[in-house]
Amino acid sequence: MDSHVWPLVSSLGLLLLLSLLTGHRVVEGSSRHHGYAHSSGRHRHQLQTTYSSRQAHAFRPTKLFVFGDSYADTGNIGKAESNSWKVPYGITFPGKPSGRFSSGRVLTDYFAKSMGARSPIPYKWKRLGTQHLQYGMNFAYGGTGVFNTLVPHPNMTAQIGLLEQLIKDKTFSAGDMKWSVVLVTLSGNDYSAYNARNGMIQSLPAFIESVVIQLSKNLRRLYALGAKKVAMAALQPLGCLPTSTAANSFQSCNDTVNLLVELHNQMLHQAVDDLNNQTHSSTFIIVDLYSSFMSVLNSTGGDPKFDKPLKPCCIGINSGYNCGSVDKTGSKMYTVCEDPESAFFWDMVHPTQAGWQAVFSSISAALSAALSF
């Protein structure tokens, strides 16, 4: 996702704004620690879904189809367009840049592994041959959202259109969809673009609602294509990303930004409940990245190996540079920590491989039960 963050307003002002403009109940009693993490106040399970045990145990997925952004992209974005193809990205896995926005593996890789499968190939490699299609396909492009953002790549609607065309071309079949799982990520690029385009804070709740409505339409399209299970990632705590915490030297999360994330996730949970009711199915589940990120980042329940979990491993030497940046002479304009596996965040937005592993470990048991992996 992009590195912009929402403009800051007072927490009290934002609470009143959300209440007045959306009609949604703002959760009372959200904790406000001075430390770097706090619970959402909703006490949600790591993975929320209702499903029939009989149906779940009869389901053995064979393919994974992936849609979304840089939290899921495994190489679709072009080499000339992103630092994810530059050193030191991929330093942990596969040992060189592979287009993943991390030191190594990302959410898609762990999701596929939990299915007992390899990561599906990126869409741009679709002509490699049918033998490479056995695990599905990844349509995710870094920097994208449900709407057009700041990058010239397919938004989620267009990504689903790519799959529809492959089905029409008989690259994939209805049978493939019946025995597939779909992973969808939406990690905040729509909101970054809104901020970059000088969107007004007063209109933000309505924009959040429009994002969730469009996302719901996209999820319904996947259902119409025959997807048996659709796992939708909740929005992670944007207020805990290094882009939000750099202002206080990576010491504490921005609670104001996280309030907006909570509103998004509140609407998302309602939308997913509505989809399951409307389709009389248990197709749609939520992978609660908000809770899992918080679980790992929180000092009482987090992984002790992340000594300073909000501080990124790879960072530009100043605000004008990013991880992977070089100057005109080719000199590195970034620094990398001694051990990426000891850091939760890789760059200003994305977790390290170790970070993703910790996040996935916190949801894997519930996910396996829900999807019968």
Q: Structural class given helices, strands, pairing?
A: alpha/beta
- Ranges where pLDDT stays below 50 over 5 or more residues in a row are 3-13, 19-46, 48-56
Shape: globular
Tell me the Rg in angstroms. Answer: 20 Å
Separation, N- and C-terminal Cα atoms: 29 Å
Helix content: 25-40%
What's the total number of strands? 9
**Mean model confidence by pLDDT:** 86
User: How would a textbook summarize the main sheet?
Assistant: 7 strands, mixed
Strand content: 5-15%
Instruction: Report the order of strands and helices.
Output: HEHEHEEHHEHHEHHEHEEH
Q: What is the number of helices? A: 11
Order of strands in the sheet with the most strands? Answer: 1-7-6-5-2-4-3
Give a verbal description of the structure:
With 373 residues, the chain is α/β, with parallel strands linked by helices. The chain is 34% helix and 9% strand. It has eleven helices and nine strands. The strands form two sheets. The protein has a seven-stranded mixed β-sheet with strand order 1-7-6-5-2-4-3, with helices on both faces. The radius of gyration is 20 Å and the shape is globular.
Summary keywords:
two-stranded antiparallel ribbon, 373 residues, disordered N terminus, alpha/beta, seven-stranded mixed sheet
Write the layout of secondary structure elements.
Elements lengths: L10 H12 L24 E2 L4 H5 L5 E5 L39 H8 L6 E2 L13 E3 L17 H13 L5 H5 L1 E5 L4 H8 L7 H21 L4 E5 L8 H4 L9 H24 L5 E4 L1 H9 L16 E3 L17 E3 L16 H19 L2
Parallel strand pairs: 2-4, 2-5, 3-4, 5-6, 6-7
Antiparallel strand pairs: 1-7, 8-9
Helix pairs in contact: 1-9, 3-11, 7-9, 10-11
